[in-house]
Fold each of these.
Amino acid sequence: MSNQKKRNFQIEAFKHRVVVDPKYADKTWQILERAIHQIYNQDASGLSFEELYRNAYNMVLHKFGDKLYTGFIATMTAHLKDKSKLIEAAQGGSFLEELNKKWNEHNKALEMIRDILMYMDRTYIESTKKPHVHPMGLSLWRDNVVHSPKIHSRLLNTLLDLVHKERTGEVIDRGLVRNVTKMFMDLGESVYQDDFEKPFLDASSEFYKVESQEFIESCDCGDYLKKAEKRLTEEIDRVGHYLDAKSEDKITSVVEKEMIANHMQRLVLMENSGLVTMLLNDKYEDLGRMYNLFRRVTNGLATVRDVMTSHLREMGKQLVTDPEKSKDPVEFVQRLLDERDKYDKITSTAFGNDKTFQNASNSSFEYFINLNARSPEFISLFVDDKLRKGLKGIADADVEVVLDKVMMLFRYLQEKDVFEKYYKQHLAKRLLSGKTVSDDAEKSLIVKLKTECGYQFTSKLEGMFTDMKTSEDTMRGFYGSHPELSEGPTLIVQVLTTGSWPTQPAVPCNLPAEVSVLCEKFRSYYLGTHTGRRLSWQTNMGTADIKAIFGKGQKHELNVSTFQMCVLMLFNNSDRLSYKEIEQATEIPAPDLKRCLQSLACVKGKNVIKKEPMSKDIGEEDLFCVNDKFTSKFYKVKIGTVVAQKETEPEKQETRQRVEEDRKPQIEAAIVRIMKSRKILDHNNIIAEVTKQLQPRFLANPTEIKKRIESLIERDFLERDNTDRKLYRYLA
Amino acid sequence: MIEDYFLGKNKKKKKSSHLLSVQNLEFILLTSMGNSKDRIKFNVGGRIFETTSTTLANAGHDSFFGALFDDDWNLSPPKEDLFIDRNPDCFAVLLDLLRTGDLNVPANIPERLLHREASFYGLLHHVRTAKWGPFDGNRLRLSDSVKGIAPGDGTAVRAGPDGGCCVAHGSVVHVFDWMLEEHCPINLDYQRVNDVGWIDSDNIVLSACEKLGRGDGGMGLFSSSTGDLRYKFQVCHENQVKSYTAGALSFNQDYKIFSSCKGRSNEYGVGVWDQITGKQTDFFYESPGWSLGDADKLQWLNGMNCLLVATLFPRKDNCYISLLDFRDKNMVWSWSDIGSPMAIDEKRVRDAIAMEDSNSICVVNEFEDLGFIDLRMYGGSVRWSSRSRLMKSKMPDEPCYPKLALHEGQLFSSMNDSISVFCGPDWVLTSRLRRSYGGSICDFSIGGDRLFALHSEENVFDVWETPPSPII
């Protein structure tokens, strides 16, 4: 302590020698102080900058920097206290204006004071690490004016009041508010945040809490969203007009929280106007608004998505499980396509093609389409229908559109192999009966299936097309080598590769002699050109055109099946035949024969045969003769076979069984493939991997996989691990 | 018209003013060309000067002229001469500086007077930047020699970032600003100084020996302008504060300070402190059979993110050079001459410096032979360059071991009374700095575009700088 004093004393002595006038410092400071007063009183025109600068310089040079610094702070503080009183005195609306005016004056004065004190700013302040003149002037303003007790809350309330007024529709002086908020920003980020932004956000939160409550009680969902959207844009505008740009995120999140996040569930589930209603009534605009607003809050879109998904699943479930609807497969699939189109449109127009929404709607479709085990069949039937007749007169581009849509549905199917089975059957029928409308459309669909499921999936389908093509060539060759056959009945043979086509047990029957001769000729021709092949006749699938002359000379050409032809040809030789005789002569299996006779004798308008007794069903004791009185408006008469377009129950079982049977080798192949690469794997992992590998084709049944594993173990492809029975080991 | 050049003033204050770039200057000239209102008349200490506000705008906002032309002062148009009560001779020099960017001081004006005047106008920075040009080891000229009054030999000289330097003598460090004016000397409990370094233009770190049992010494942070001790760094071992001797220093851009440390018992190694908080953040303990705590040199390698630590002969019997990675406390590279055949040609490493660009460490022996060690190989040997200066015969009485420095692709090596400059990929000798008196150079340092060389005998240091660029 004594040391310190001593040193001080020495410095005093030193100063005295340099500065002649002991009151030099005081005098100089008085000049500067007077100048500061004049500057604040806006009376600076008479001041000499050079003189003031020099005086301030001299004070610092002569080590009175401290006196200058503290003096400047004290003088400025005193002025600001006066100013603060003047601002306090301002009444009502002029308060802000007064504050703003005084702030501008202070800024100008501060600028000039800093000019005078520049040397101090650069040397004394720099080396003592004190705050510089400009920031010091700002913090003095903050402490003496903005934070003075009579101004602080009044200023805040005035500002909040103005904002509230603007929110309720009044017009306010935005320029003034901007100047004041700008002042807060100039005073530093923390001042802006603590003294204005935070209370502003709190007040906004309160305001919107009340308002949103009011709205939700009185408005429906669509109107509420409109209002929320309007408020949000208003607040963003407000930030642009008179707040710091950094406040935008904060105020929007307040509005989002109060107006949307807090009422999310209620809005979405609002009765008669919520999301479900919007979806049902195609309110794209409202849906878009909901999406854009809910996107802003956490879990907002998830909420919308969940409600949409459950609605879609419920709706879809009703659609596919309604027994009424599944009566007509075409109608059924058309309904699915319509729903699909609708949700596509919703996601693209209202939900901005949001991937998560696309996925949600896709997974919902996948969910409910597979609820109905007959979906694969129906989709195939729909395609069948379209390709048989529906596509007439539609432009190629539109055909593509329809097919693409069908492919969308196909993608949802879990049991794609079932679809394949049905598709094969339907395609076979189309090809063999020549019913297909457009080869291009057929091929285009095959290409689509190929890109979707790979070469494997369509190779057989393509094989069917090749067979059709080669058969044409074969026939041309056959008739070319047998020119004598141009007379007499014409035989058209389609040679189908076994395996490519849906196999049906070949049902033999006795063909009429004229035909069987021809058949023999063809057989020898074909086997002559293709050695090592075996031909078997699928008489159950053929058709024949027969010219017939009835009792009164009516000539007709009858289009019948091969079985029907066999039956009708019998009547060339006798007028009356019993069921037993027909059965014996043709050797057609009883159920087929019954159906065949039924369609010849019992269908109104096409009854070319008379039956005794006249009844709907065919009995073993019935007698048949030619219906001489048969008439028809048409020359050509097509006699169908009584067979449903949809397959019969046992047929369905059979298809199902065939599908199951076909799956077995595929499952086994998958197991072996996996085990070959893994060598050792436990049960659960095998099941998981097999399921994954087969997913594009069908959903493998775990019990079936287990059975396949057992079978592979029996055949020494795999073995169980000796120590851990859950592990399987691949045997090379 | 004048106001226009200072419009930006109200918006933002910058602490330092800079000479406007040439382009800017041209722009301003163009806009004011042929405008007679642009002219300004000064009466400085009785002499009349006439100039333009364009010229004065070069002084920047943060100067006397910047403040003078602030819109708030009713100056424009000036009614009469503006009187300034200052030295007219110096004003003429400074006005020329603003006009041309060149500093030409007549012999009759003492430097100190000019600096004083420049300080009044806020033009010191302009003077400093005009005084010498960007550093180039091949264009250096001796600008000054400063004689000290210290009793003992010099330990170290360190260049500051803006042209100043500090010189360690025994237990005191003398601090000089860029005008080579000496400030208050600094000391840490008057303990022997081992190393010293600049954190920035205002902060110096000093490392010193400990005093037995007193807890003195260690490491301290000082203000370069006032010489005040601002902070004393501590070493903690197992949560106990230990007294220690701080050795070589290094700093990095992440505001860390590194120092080799020798404590009472276990605290041997390299300590790390935070420049902002002053707290010890890490300590790399030396492993048995290796030396870190005695290191002669620390060098932070920015690209490799690790610290080079070199302990050299004769401080230890052997040389140890290692690279430490503090992120996983790992010695990522090391080299030592333990076991290598020696004594035949006495090629012992006396200083080492890492050169990240060429992935090598350059070393030097007592005959100023340069050697290189490949950083990419572990356990490589020194590849000595064959250049020999044939001076084994005439060693001075008081030899100083060579020191190395690297600056923007130029390698510097001191030997006896001269400093050699090497350039290019093969480090060809391109220049030699030599001055006849003062004895051997015991240390040198490059920084703030200047080179300081400290001589051992006469207690004098030289300042080398690059002259400003030629007129054409």
Amino acid sequence: MERDEESSGLMMEMCTNGGGEETSNRRPIISGEPLDIEAYASLYKGRTKIMRLLFIASHCGGNQTMQLEALRMAYDEIKKGENTQLFRDVVNRINGRLGDKYKMDSAWCESVDRRAEQKKGRLENELSSYRVMKYVVLFMCCLVCLHRSFLVNHYLDNETNLIKESIRMGHNDFGDFYYACGLLSDAFKNYVRTRDYCTTAKHIIHMCMNAILVSIEMGQFTHVSSYVNKAEQNPETLDPIVAAKLRCASGLAHLELKKYKLAARKFLDVSPELGNSYNEVIAPQDVATYGGLCALASFDRSELKAFIPLRFFSLVAKVIDNINFRDFLELVPEVRELINDFYSSRYASCLEYLGSLRANLLLDIHLHDHVDTLYDQIRKKALIQYTLPFVSVDLSRMADAFKTSVSGLEKELEALITDNQIQARIDSHNKILYARHADQRNATFQKVLQMGNEFDRDVRSMMLRANLLKHEYHARAGRNH
Amino acid sequence: GLCSSEISITIGGMSSTENLITSIQGLSASSGDLSALHRILKGAEETLHADSDLQLSTLEQLDPSKHSLGYLYLLDVLTCGGPMSKEKASEVVLLIARFITSCDADQIRLASDKFVSLCKGFKDRVLELEDPLRGVAPLLTAVRKVQVSTKRLTALHPDCLQLCLQAKCYKAGFSILSDDILEVDQPRDFYLYCYYGGMICIGQKKFQKALELLYNVVTAPMHSVNAIALEAYKKYVLVTLIHSGQFSVSLPKCASTAAQRHLKTWSISHLQFNPMISAALYPILARSLYVAYNFYRSPFSQPYTEVGNCYNEGKISELQAVVVAHSSDFEKDNNLGLVKQAVSSLYKRNILRLTQKYLTLSLQDIANMVQLANAKEAEMHVLQMIQDGQIHALINQKDGMVRFLEDPEQYKTSEMIEVMDSVIQRTIGLSKNLIAMDESLSCDPLYLGKVGRERQRYDFGEDFDTVPQKFSM
């Protein structure tokens, strides 16, 4: 296809032109090869990096080296922060297997906890003093209103705003503090409390972004959706990066709630300017992977055509402005290949890519629960699409294309026929699938006759019941008289 | 003949019985005479009971076909007595049978209540003699004679059906069922008619009609669930499975609230009360019709709903397990045969599903998919279904392959056009009936009175001024 060549041509150009930027992310990370944990982890920052590493450690099966590598990196990362609970956790899991450098450091824990206590105390004091100030100022406002002194009024307004701002920042700081300590629900509560003290649109967006971040970490994706909506209702136009972040969050929420089509639409709407700016939640590779897989599983052919090649084409066009996106494209060549294969009906190759990616996708914290469903849906779509243009299909050739046995294929097709997704029947003797188009005329006649009979029965039953009721009514009336 | 005013019954002189015989012989010609005769007979009834002169032999003076009314009264007096010896009972039965066969329909319709009670007595005698077959033909005739129109249910319908059931003459019973009953006087008769009728249809394997009849009982308006409705419900569940393969726990919306609430859970088979065990106890069923069994809520029809739910899942082995677990319950209700038919219908339904997905399939594959024991059994089932017209297929015994065909009906033949035409005619006829019913109802004073009363409550405004003012109270 021409577009393919064009885009890959451009890609080649970019590769040769580039130079002097980070090379660490050059190699495809989501690919068929075993996951390069270091490269993967470098895509993220903050708490999600730790959580992802821990997830990999617990889901990598028997692979000891991978597990230890993940745990080691998690340990290092945790020590940069202030979450002693996580630290204890990871030490337990390492269990001494990484030597002395990676064992329990009680001194560190204690000092971190002590600092946390102090900070907490300080924040509380500040906040309560602001609150007191607020009430004092409010009281004075009332007095002033009574005296109607204009200047004093104006001065007090300013004071109120300043106090509001201080309280807001106080709660925000608290939120940040709790988040760093790992107390997510307290963090959430504090971020949400800033709502009452927000005075500008920017404040509201800030609050929403914080709330979204914590909700994602807590796994409460309904909150994510509602705060995204809140932020998007902003009357001013949003900063494009913020808009892109919101779409990512929204896409994630839909993905977790199994609404794959909506998730795909959101991810595909993420503007390429996102870059790495949201890597406390999601990496640009994830946007491409999640979006691509969800689209493949849920879009029909025309939607796929409208979106996918165009999407990547536009990403290519933007590449000139944004160097990060060279990495973006480079990092998901397998996903892009498999989408193209699906669209051009090269199902064997598409399913092969899917198979090779599976192990690594299962290590992804958000995709883990959905890999099987998505794969299943993609496979079903492939089967349906394969049979669509034909009057008859040789089952053994189809089985080869789908890398399965004829009897296995028969069972899959049977399920699809029962669900009415394929209009066909199987000739089990000769192993051929024949398309079957219902005869509308006969079906209509049959239905009409059936309806006539039903009407007959229903009306007669009804008249009998009416008769019985009438009799009863007469009998009762007879008794009354 | 002699006109009524000239007849008088003298006390002393001719005996009253002889007088009566004479009157009967004389007044049975025209309709005017007959109404006079009727009055005389009604007046003389009391004395006849006490009269010792009246014997079975007396009846020989009368001709049952010409003097039907009189014969009826006399016969009724003679045979309504209590227990009699087997020989006498046999004689009586024979006499009544002959009477029914030869009597004049117009005459007996004048005293239809008496005729009905005579026939019911006849039925009881026949059952006592344990020879129900003797009663089938006479009762069939009786029903036809006492019926005013084929649309109206008589009190004799259920008795006739009961005898047919006892005698296993399903065909005879089925001939009565082919009438469309639209008017019903006594709900009691109706419930029994539908229940027995349903059983006869099951015997004839006409499951659609059986379903219709049982449906009518289950959805009939009733304030409290009665024994018949409960038994009918159990059969209804099983027949639904056999006929349409879909079971839903909730009753159709048109069923009464009492039925909807209680049919699934009520039991009346407590051992102290009437056990629903043997056919001989059906009369007891009729008597217990209006008793509400509030106290016993053991889930007696639950085995049936369990079977229904299991059937919906479609797994043969589970269904069979449920059947085995509750087989004693089914046995008690005499429904075990029906349950077995339901189970075998599940196989058929599963095979039917296969025809939607496959063009050809080997017998062994069918056996595997439907969980039959081997290919031979599969062949048997498929053959049966082809013969019953449930599927269209060809079996190739050489390959052991079955080829499923489309329904060859093209809806182009003249027979099909006739069928469609008759359906259309029926529908038009039914619509006319409905409209007539609606019209008669809107003239019914009782109904108008009720609407008039309620009209105060609802302000329908100008549009609904259908009730004349005089009916507002």
Amino acid sequence: MAGGDDLKLLGLWSSPFVLRVQLALSLKGLSYEYIEEEALVNKGELLLKYNPVHKKVPVLIHNGKPVCESRVILQYIDEAFAGIGPSLLPADPYERAVARFWAAYIDDTMLPVWNKSSMGKTEEEMAEGKKQSLATAEVLEGALRDCGKGKPFFGGDSAGYVDVVLGGLLGWVRASDELHGVKPFDPERTPLLVAWSERFGALEAVEPVVPDVSRLVEFGKMWKARLAAAAAGASN
Amino acid sequence: MAGKEDLKLLGLLVSPFVIRVRMALSMKGLNYEYVEEDLFNKSELLLKLNPVHKKVPVLIHNGKPICESLVILQYVDELFTGRAILPTDPYERATARFWAAYIEDKLCPAWIGILKAKAEEERAEKVKETLAAIEHVEVAFAKCSNGNVFFGGDSIGYLDIVLGSFLFWFEALRRMYGLEIINTSKTPLLAAWAERFGGSVEAKEVVPEADKAVQYANKLHAAAAVKLVSSE
């Protein structure tokens, strides 16, 4: 661990984006102080100070300087702590481009349809979201098969950038069946992704970091109830 | 200086995303074969090399495709020596990536939404979003440039390319809707920067006249109208 490096992470236990950063720090063996947003009295102030543009977590604070946006933070960690622990991004520039492409796909294409399938405003929208989610999962399955080339992780023999980007969603992937009756990774259509999530989830650096599924389910149920109440209230 | 590389770019003359890549390649002194795509009639090559998104730009290097403009910019920067596009310091790189993401995720959908809007109300909403986003970018310029003339310092860098590629479209929107996204009173720093960017050698080489963008927008609107009619 680099001496004199002060690392703090402003996070929220249920956030997949925060989890990504925790996974990266864990994989690289970096110590940090974790500050839970939920427990903060002055969270509004702190977020405004360190992330005035988005006012969201995660925020990584390195020697007092904030870095925001999970994928930006991941690449920052990889570059600022290049000599420490494994690299998240591959060394080869073409493989790096492929990794960045799939990370962007997960956030820009896959996540929006996952959200639609569980939080769509109408039954129709949710059904469409579910269909699209299956399609995007199949595309990602293809990526693991073709880019992974039979290796256990997107990063090859060990977990890397794309594994961490997708891995942040692991808790919610597990909670999804009980919450929404949907398996984002279907064992029949996306068997490689199912195997990947078990393998990634079992990693020593990962297992203790992923939030408890039952806690996420409880949180998810409460969130759904709130949304339903708001919708009912709005239509009165 | 890069030796003879096998570089091909599938693009569209009016696409800001393609222009970003052309600027980067030019800044690195790289030669490439340019192929203009007809997005209303996509080529086999495009569909084969970008099956996921079916969009331009696609850079083909020694037969291997790289997609997504920001991914391509970083690829070109990391692989080829010469002028640096991204900063070298990790914290400055993180700042550049943060703002590139902001421009992509917040500013871009907003101004494109102005073009795509099917009703006045929707357009007004998108205008509001665009103006709100550009204000954040004005603050970003003050922070990133550090008193210099470009986001990248004293010469054009990553953020200059990412945002600068939109400028001729902003001018097109001004001609079409009388909208000033960047103006001297609300966003003075960006207004001055836009002049400098527009007048630069790098921009003059690849950025088309705003009228080309207006023409393309009219083409898109006409096609959308046809679709609407034929779906009735």
